[in-house]
Structures are given as C-alpha cells and as structure tokens.
Amino acid sequence: MIRGEVMAGKTAIFCICVMVCGMAGAQPVTITGKHSSYAGKTVRVTIPGNPFIHSPRYSEEVRCNPEGVFNVVLDAQENDAVRLESGIYSSILYVTPGCRYEIVLPEFREVEYADRMSPYYQPLELPPRIISVTVARREPGSPGDGEIQGGEVRMCMDGRLNEKIAAFDSIFSALNEEVVMDRRLEKDPGADSLIAATEARYSSDPSGFFSDYRRYRYGILKLNEGKTGLEEISLAYLGPGIRESNPAFMELFRAMFRDFLFYYSRTPEGEGIRDQINRARRPDTLRQKLMDHPAVWSDTLAEMVLLQELTDIFYRGDYHQEAILILLDSMIQDPVSPQQALYASQVLSRLESLVTGHSPPPVEFPGPDGDPFSLQDFRGKYVYLLFCTPDHYGCMMEYPFLQSYYNKHSAYLEVISVMVAQDREQVSAFMEKNAYGWTALYYEDRPGILADYMVRAFPTAYLIGR
User: Fold this and answer.
1) Do 102 and 131 form a contact (C-beta atoms < 8 A)?
2) Which is nearest to 383 in space by CA: 375, 392, 395, 372?
3) CATH of segment(s) 366-464
4) How many Å apart are CA 419 and CA 390, to the nearest integer?
5) Domain coordinates of the chain in residue numbers?
6) What counts of helices (H) and strands (E) characterise the chain?
7) In this predicted model, what pLDDT tens digit does every residue of 118-175 receive, in sequence order?
8) Whole-angstrom Cα distance, residue 9 to residue 314?
9) Phi, psi (degrees; rounded to nearest 5) at 217
10) Which residues on neighbouring strands pair with residue 442, listed in sequence order?
C-alpha cells in the first residue's frame, strides 16, 4: 500500500518501432542484424499495448551473441508495433507478419551518464537500412509447415515501404520547419500549396497504409500553420477511422487534443465538464458532451480524448483524483468497445497504483546475491523505496539521514534504493565505500521501473505500507 505519492516520469533510450501491417492473425516475424559492437549487448523488444500509458503487450530483453548477432522471432498481428531499444538510436521498421527482415545495425553507442539523468533526453532517430526481406519459414511440425502462400511472397517482397516512409519523413521534417518558421515570422506558410506539391510525387502510389501515413503528417502541418480550425483538421486529416496503433495517427491525435478539457470546459458548449468529472462521473453523458465539439466525430474518439486527458491531468490538482478513478471505473463498466475498456482498465490500474491506499507497481529484481528479489519479501515491514543516483547533490544529502533512520527503525522498516548509475559495479562500489547498509539495486535490472513509478527527478521516494 502506498503511503505517500510523488510526481514522477520516465526516460527512454533507443527504440526501433516495428509497425506490422498485412495479414490478420498472429504470425511469426523475424528481425535479425549483426554488428560486432553489439557483442553481449541487450536489445529490449516490446510490443506497445496501451497508447495512453507505458504498458507493453509484449516485453523481452534479447542478448546479442559474442559475434554481435541480434535475432528475435515473435508473433505479430496486423498493425502491431514492435520496439527494439538499445543504446542511443531510434528507428522505425515497418514489417509484414510472416516475413523475415535482415537489417543493418548501426555501431553501438552507449547513452552518456549525463543524458540518463536528463528528463529532456531524446534518442537519436535513424531510419533503418534493410538488407533483405524474405518469407519466414515455419518451424517443422507447425501448422502450415513448408507452405508459402502467394500473398505472403508478394507482401514480403514489397520491402520499399520503409524506404518510402524514410524519404517522406525527410521531406516532411523540412516542410514542418518551414511552416513553423513562417508562422513565427508572421508570414503565410502556405501549407496547402506545400501539401499539394508534395502529394503530387505520390499520385500513383497504391499503398493504403502509406497514404494514411502521409495524411496524418499533413495534419501536423495544418495544425502548425495555425490557420485551420480543429474541426476541419479532425475531419480531413485525422478521420474517418481510429488507428491508435499507427504512430503518425497518435502523434496527430495528441497534438490536436492536448489540454482539450482545459480549453473546452471554458466555452459555453463545454460548460459543466468539471462537474461531470468531479461529481456526476457518468461516462455516457461526458462522451456526449465532448461530441458536442465538432472535432470529436465519434464516441470512440471521445473515449480516447477522455483517456488521454484523464491520464495527463491526474496529478495536476485541477480535478479530484478519486473522482477520476471512479470515472475510469465507470468507463470500464460502460465502454464504447472492449478495446477501450481494456485501455481504461490499464490506465486505472496505473494511476491508482501510485495513490495512497492502493497497491504499488511490482518491484522485482535480481538481488545483490543473484537471487530473485521482490517487495513481497518484506511483508510485515514498511518499505521506504528511494529512486536516486550515486552523485546527485540532493540524493547525497539524504543518504546519511537515511542510514541513521534505517539503523534506528530497521526492526519494522526496510530501505530499498533503486539507483540510476553507469553500471552495477558503480552501485556496489558506492554502497561499499560509504558503508551504507540498506539494499541498493541497479535500475536497468528492472526495465520500465522508472516509468512505472513516474520518476521525473531525483531523489523520488515512496513509503509503502506493510
């Protein structure tokens, strides 16, 4: 049970997002690459699940072999996005279920320690270089062993989607900078002309996915131009369907509806939203209220706006936290779709896990002696969970007090520090040098723990009840 709460956040290192498009149903996707600098390095492989919080549907740490070969095989469904995280790089690789992708790994570069400490750090985005795309053979004895369908061959052989998106993104980045700069200089950016000229290059492209991708990006241009209303952008560029698994869709969605409740609730049409959230807590009435805005053209879109906004405002103090939790529970009981109910359930679980009186996120590590380590090992004691670094000034001021407090109350209090350090050896050396007696863990041994506890600054601490 959480006894105290602290606002916090998350950091990310390297991500290759794999957008899976193609056949429905789970099929194996193989991604492989080689570079000697990856020898012994780990690559974090995840399939994002919930677009509103860090909640991957699939997560695994894959270690490269001594020759630096990386290889992962996982089942993928249509429109899955597979992320690979390692070092400073970030790429997006679009793949088809049932195919094998051999990619060029860039030379491995570790994230600098100072960058890990910065909440503003962003990975270096790098378009992937693909060596080959082939049909992934099924394992002997599996259903369909040895069968290769014509559609599979056609889809796997179309490996140019990544090249087209990389080339388009390069054009889009330049156009977006131009639009933003013209707006700052109070010049007419002429986004419509820029879009028309760019789109003329792709008039003969039959790819539905690539066409949607471009449309979402053009929506960003129109939004940054500042001349087009939210309604027109929503109808012409975001709609008519919901594509939350598409990164370009979600980028446009987030940009359009960021702080939507704040502004809409101050209009005559949005009057009463605060009372709906803080008191009535009826999701059907609240959805309809949002749909009174012309940019919100479906109940599913209204639900997504609510999920994004409730997640963002939870710690701001503008709305009662318990009211938000109750509303999310009502959205689970009265959803617009099973998928949205799942999203609401995951958001509720994440938000309430850091609220006083609720169970905290799990803390599971390999302990200092190599044995599994968990919060459950300390049932019956209070646990002071501290996120810190060996050399941050604020942390260093707290350590002597923490040791004294631990010595005095160790009969019923356990202290656990999760340290963001250069490596495990630095954590061990620091604890030994200063003769600190509590348990210290290396943060990378539990990927995602900083996000789970929303750590944005150091030190951040939670008192967990017994």
Assistant:
1) yes
2) 375
3) 3.40.30.10
4) 7
5) 15-143+151-158, 166-257, 260-352, 366-464
6) 16, 16
7) 777 888 888 888 888 888 765 554 443 333 444 445 556 555 888 888 899 999 999 9
8) 13
9) -65, -40
10) 419
